[in-house]
Amino acid sequence: MRTTAAVLKEASALRRAATSLASRARVERAGELTLTQVAVLGRIAVDGPITPREVAGRLRMVPQSLTRPLAALEVAGLVRRTPDPSDGRGALLHVTGDGLAALRAEMAPRDRWLAQAMAAVCSDDERATLATAAQIMLRVADYGGGVAPVEP
């Protein structure tokens, strides 16, 4: 069984690697939207229709921090609101066709760079390992332990 110190060392190495990869990939982005707008638009595209509070929760943000990014996305026609049938005072967010196109445009340069980098420096087995690691990292990212819940 691994010791706490060993797991902490592995966690630190993984965090540094994930941070370095994310930083490098951000350099390759299209840059038409802010990073927050891309994150919000992506959550709505994947999980929508979704309430603003749910978007905030999934992004580990407070709902008030989404006011400006959501307003900008709506003004640009990338997101639209509809009444929430389960809560007459609330709204559901939907990504529009233009929103999907904008999200693809933001992600395409990142994906191209990462595919080129993986092809250049990884063996077939290593690329398969990275694909498995990506699934594991998503599960780890969804883990809620040790984090204060988003305010109700």
Write out key terms for the chains shown.
152 residues; mainly alpha; Arc Repressor Mutant, subunit A
Taking Cα atoms only, what radius of gyration do you get, to the nearest Å?
A: 18 Å
Mean pLDDT: 91
Which class do the helix and strand fractions yield? mainly alpha
Low-confidence stretches: none
The largest sheet has its strands arranged as 1-2
First and last CA, distance: 38 Å
Description:
With 152 residues, the protein is mostly helical. The protein has a single domain (22-141), classed as Arc Repressor Mutant, subunit A. 64% of the residues lie in helices and 10% in strands. The protein contains six helices and two strands. It has helices spanning 4-27, 35-47, 52-58, 67-75, 97-121, 124-142; strands at 79-84, 87-95. It has a two-stranded antiparallel sheet with strand order 1-2. β1 (79-84) and β2 form a beta hairpin. α2 crosses α4 (67-75) and α2 (35-47) crosses α5 (97-121). The longest helix is centred in the last third of the chain and has 25 residues, at 97-121. It starts with a helix and ends in a 10-residue tail after the last helix. The model has no long low-confidence stretch (mean pLDDT 91).
